Amino acid sequence: MNILVTGGCGFIGSHLTDRLLERGHRVSVIDNLSTGNIANLNKKAVLYKIDIRDDENVGQVFDKEQPEVVFHLAAQINVRKSEEDPYLDTDININGSLKIIKNFLRVERRKKFVFASTGGAIYGDTDILPTPETVEPFPLCPYGISKLAVEKYLFYFSMFYNLKFVVLRYGNVYGPRQNAQAEAGVISIFSNNILDKKTPVIFGDGEQTRDFVYIDDIVNANITVMDNDVNGIFNVGTGKETSVNQVFDYLKKASGLNLNKRHAEPRKGEIKRSCISPAKLIRLTGWHPSVEIKEGISKTFTWFKGSY
Ligand SMILES: NC(=O)c1ccc[n+]([C@@H]2O[C@H](COP(=O)([O-])OP(=O)(O)OC[C@H]3O[C@@H](n4cnc5c(N)ncnc54)[C@H](O)[C@@H]3O)[C@@H](O)[C@H]2O)c1
How far apart are CA 74 and CA 165, in angstroms? Predict the structure, then answer.
């Protein structure tokens, strides 16, 4: 199949591109390299170095490639940046997404649109944990709001334009190639701190929890929803909570070093607990998270060490 991956030079998009190519698909990528790295991208993929908001060039890519499936991952992913500059976040994450969706609607042989949403930022501070998709989203940051807006647009286009779509609400994804500059990935940030011989800083008491999900499981989920006749919204997480203190302990073990950590003031507005239920995806497709956090952290640290 002809497949388009937006954000294919980024952390998740590049792993997904690798897997799609392995399976014999033709993969084209739209990426402006704002946070992505060309070194991440498989040489067999066709790169269009353009911005998803650039209507003219995006249109030309769709005319040429006629992708049957689109995985839309390009986004402004930094929560703090979305708070500082909600206009930019809206522009990339909503307007940019609409440009990709509208162009996809012009493709006659289109099969499915798969959107990378967030399970970590969309539910807000709910006490229903692990959170199923039936809990009403209540995002507490502009990033979460923009992701929710795109989900709503997808429903609209599915009702009136016959668009088939899947929304994947990811937990906290981690693994090789994650950008440590991007503030979202505590595991990549701490791994780099350790290799730079800097003391990892934990905001608050470190007992805040997240649903950390390994990159291979995220790629598998994307492939699974492409292959199966499913539509709608799915959480992709492990259903298990891990605290930031536990992450530090696992990394300490993986590094074999006697490390110290430092605590700083808690971050304003940070959600205390976040964990999403993947039961719906498991029930409808048989997908399953397969990498335990301890093993995933060890693999991730080994990769960062190797590329240091
Ligand atoms: N990493 C996570 O834990 C996580 C969790 C939930 C959701 N997501 C979502 O998954 C997707 C991928 O995230 P990631 O962690 O791989 O981030 P990433 O920053 O590594 O990848 C994003 C890619 O999109 C590109 N991009 C950004 N803005 C663009 C624009 N305007 N035009 C063209 N390309 C642009 C970047 O250059 C980058 O290559 C995002 O949509 C993100 O919101 C990620």
Answer: 16
> Which strands form 46-48's sheet, in the order they lie side by side?
46-48, 26-30, 2-6, 69-72, 112-118, 165-170, 232-236
Residue 285 pLDDT > 90, yes or no? yes
Q: Whose CA is nearest to atom 1 of ligand 1?
A: 173
Measure the CA–CA gap between 229 and 208, rounded to whole angstroms: 37
The verdict on whether 143 is a catalytic residue reads: yes
Label residue 180 by pLDDT band (50, 70, 90).
Answer: confident
Pick the CATH number of 174-210+240-276+286-306 from 1.10.10.10, 3.90.25.10, 3.90.20.10, 1.20.1510.10: 3.90.25.10
Q: What is the pLDDT of residues 130-173, one digit of tens each?
A: 999 999 999 999 999 999 999 999 999 999 999 999 999 999 99
- Nearest residue (by CA) to ligand 1, atom 7, is 118
Q: Which CATH superfamily is domain 2-172+213-236 in?
A: NAD(P)-binding Rossmann-like Domain (3.40.50.720)
Domain boundaries, the chain: 2-172+213-236, 174-210+240-276+286-306
Query: Which is catalytic among the residues 48, 87, 123, 143?
Result: 143
Distance (Å, whole) CA 215 – CA 77: 16
Cβ of residue 219 lying under 6 Å from some atom of ligand 1: no
pLDDT digits (tens, 9 = 90+) for 187-199: 999 999 999 999 9
pLDDT band of residue 308 (cuts 50, 70, 90) is confident
* Ligand 1 proximity of 167 Cβ (cutoff 6 Å): no
The predicted model scores a pTM of 0.98
pLDDT range class, residue 299, cuts 50, 70, 90: very high
Which two structure tokens, joined as six digits, stand for 123? 């539910």
Closest C-alpha to ligand 1, atom 42:
77
